[in-house]
Amino acid sequence: MNNAPTNTLGFLLHDASRLLRRRFELRGAQYGLSAAQWRLMVHVVRHEGISQARLAELLEIEPISVSRLVDRMEQGGWVRRCPDPQDRRVRLIHPTDRAMEAFTMVKALAGEVYEEALAGMSPERREALMDGLTQVVANLNELEASTACGSAAKEG
């Protein structure tokens, strides 16, 4: 039997993310969108006119999976594809009015879920948590960028 602690940074971040996602999915089920569809819609609203290739990068999934997601969301009236005026091979994804309305509601719903998650924490502890997580993300992004630059230099 493995007695490794589960209160390490990795386990806590993973569990918090999983539980937030589950709570959000439960509360957002009324819209009939999967978690993957919600994530896609958020990126489409925030980056209107985004390409499917860029969506795949942001969602960290294969382009064919993004294409299928966009197909389903287009059929449901959530997004529309438009040709890119600079490159006829590229299709740009735009949110529909339906998506924009849902996004507004979802922002409010997300705020409620975050309040549930942070219940019992003082404003100072909330700020410290956000500061700490921001620093973790910045550190890891910096390491990833320097690793990518090192790999590119070796290949070149």
TrEMBL record:
Known SMART domains for this protein? HTH_MARR (SM00347)
Q: Known PANTHER family for this protein?
A: TRANSCRIPTIONAL REGULATOR SLYA, TRANSCRIPTIONAL REGULATOR, MARR FAMILY
Organism domain of life = Bacteria
Name of the protein this chain belongs to: MarR family winged helix-turn-helix transcriptional regulator
Q: Where is the HTH marR-type domain?
A: 6-138
Quick check: keyword Oxidoreductase in the entry?
no
Where is the organism placed in the taxonomic lineage, from the top?
Answer: Bacteria, Pseudomonadati, Pseudomonadota, Alphaproteobacteria, Rhodobacterales
Provide this UniProt record's keywords sorted from A to Z: DNA-binding, Transcription, Transcription regulation
